[in-house]
Design goal:
Helices cover about 30% and strands about 40% of the residues. The protein contains two helices and five strands, in the order H-E-E-E-H-E-E. By secondary structure, the protein is α+β, with helices and mostly antiparallel strands. A five-stranded mixed β-sheet has the order 1-2-3-4-5. It starts with a helix and ends in a 5-residue tail after the last strand. It has one domain: Trna Endonuclease, Chain: A, domain 1 (3-Layer(aba) Sandwich), CATH 3.40.1350.
């Protein structure tokens, strides 16, 4: 597996463990439907939480949060719409970002940004 893929996988595992410690119930990780993908889908306090995980090594050039582009936000929102339709859910949805920096010695610096973005209006 490429180093980049391994970094992302390790970051998503750390994000999942972090969310579970915070009381989130994980519904799915890496949920795919056609060309859509959601990193983590969880529920907390009767709210569906869609989490985009961005992982970087310590010597990154672009902050992980800044790596979430407008186009990516549109795809995440479309994927979340497909998710709630597929599972016939009627919960409010929140979009979060978890930024993970992998430090030397494989420790993690985790930042959880709740309500990181909203579904764009067209």
């Amino acid at each position: 597996m490429a180093e980049r893929n391994e970094t992302g996988k390790n970051g998503e595992l750390a994000a999942r463990a972090f969310l579970e410690k915070q009381g989130y119930k994980i519904r799915h990780t890496n949920w795919h439907w056609h060309h859509y993908e959601l990193d983590i889908v969880a529920v907390k306090e009767e709210e569906l939480v869609v989490v985009e995980v961005k992982t970087r090594s310590e010597n990154y050039l672009v902050d992980p949060v800044e790596a979430v582009s407008r186009g990516q936000i549109r795809r995440i929102v479309a994927a979340a719409d497909a998710y709630v339709r597929y599972f016939n859910l009627s919960l409010p949805i929140r979009f979060d970002i978890i930024s993970i920096i992998i430090k030397e010695g494989n420790s993690f610096q985790i930042e959880h940004i709740e309500d990181a973005f909203y579904a764009p209006c067209y």
